[in-house]
Each structure stands twice: as C-alpha cells, then as structure tokens.
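Hi V.,

Quick status before I head out on leave. The structure for the redesign project is tokenized and pasted below; the design run finished overnight.
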C-alpha cells in the first residue's frame, strides 16, 4: 500500500479535525508571523458555535500585526521569569510542573512511537505539543493513523482533564487579545471533540 492510498483512507472530517489540532499547535508553539496571521484572517466559519469562534478569530487576525502578536504571546507564555499562563498538563492537573501527568504522557508517547524534537526544551505536556500529537495521531504522522478508540484514550488521559480549562483561562487572561479569540476556538473545538468521544461506544 502506498502512502497516497493510506492518505486517501482518512475521512475528510478527520483530516479537518487534524488540521484544527495542528493549527492550534502552531499558534500556541510561538508567536504568529505575517503569513500565519494572513492565513488566520482568511479563515471562515459556519453558524455553529465553533464556526462563530473561527469567524471571530479571523476578524481579530485581520487587524493584528506581527509585532503586537509577538508581544502578546510573550506576555502570556514567557514573561519575566514566567508568563501569565503556564500551559502544561502537569501544572493544571497537579499544581506543579514535571509531575506524574508528564511521566504518563512520556510512556504513551513511547508506545505510540512519538519522539520529542531534538531542538525542543519545553516539557512534552505543553498544550502546543499535545495539540500537535493529537493532529498527528489522527492522520498517521507517527506511523499508522490511530483508531478512534486510541484517540479517545489519549484525549481523555492527556487533554480532556485540563485543556478546556486552559482555553477558558486564555480567553480571560489580561494580555489576551488575539489569543482570547484563539482560546474561544480551542474551547469550542474541544467541546465538539469531547461530545464525539463521549458518544462513542466503550
């Protein structure tokens, strides 16, 4: 079987899910440049709550320049010593960094064949990495595409318990403007994902 055949077996809906996970991962991994801001400004949404959040994000991106976006990102996630938010599963789930949720994630990453990028120094349980992992699992970036049951298990363990809370905090953060809109998209998307996984048998 060729890669093209494998690729064509992924449902359009799953490809769109993966695209949104990957997009959130890219936006949360570092401040957006002019190209990413232009791509964000061009997004369109439907009348669903998620679609409306996407439309709102596009409207903010249209009037956002790279320099203020970088300043906002730094205030939220880097700051002097630390940013306004600590976007890590361990912190949200235990109140401390580098705790058991990180160890559990590393074990699951090893089982899934996901390795940490060599030039990355952030703990793997940061929100950007988890969004990227989820997107990669859906389309098979780490080998075969993960079946829905495996996606559900990973989501329920590493994303579900805290990420919606993080996206809500992102909407309310003092430094948030562009990222408040991104937080709305993240929160609505995870509501859709959570409901879909909840309705699955088993």
């Amino acid at each position: 079987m060729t890669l093209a055949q494998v690729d064509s077996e992924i449902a359009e809906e799953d490809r769109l899910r993966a695209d949104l996970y990957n997009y959130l991962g890219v936006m949360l991994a570092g401040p957006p440049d002019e190209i990413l801001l232009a791509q964000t400004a061009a997004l369109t949404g439907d009348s669903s709550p998620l679609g409306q959040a996407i439309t709102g994000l596009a409207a903010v991106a249209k009037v956002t320049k790279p320099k203020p976006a970088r300043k906002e990102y730094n205030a939220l996630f880097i700051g002097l010593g630390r940013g306004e938010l600590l976007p890590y599963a361990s912190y949200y789930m235990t109140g401390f960094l580098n705790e058991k949720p990180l160890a559990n994630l590393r074990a699951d990453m090893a089982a899934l064949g996901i390795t940490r990028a060599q030039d990355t120094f952030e703990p793997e349980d940061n929100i950007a990495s988890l969004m990227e992992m989820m997107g990669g699992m859906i389309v098979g970036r780490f080998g075969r595409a993960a079946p829905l049951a495996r996606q559900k298990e990973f989501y329920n363990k590493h994303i579900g318990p805290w990420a919606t809370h993080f996206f809500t905090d992102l909407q309310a953060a003092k430094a948030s403007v562009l990222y408040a809109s991104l937080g709305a998209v993240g929160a609505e998307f995870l509501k859709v994902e959570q409901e879909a996984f909840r309705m699955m048998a088993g």
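Above is the designed sequence. The mean pLDDT is 93.

G. will cover questions while I'm gone.

Best,
W.
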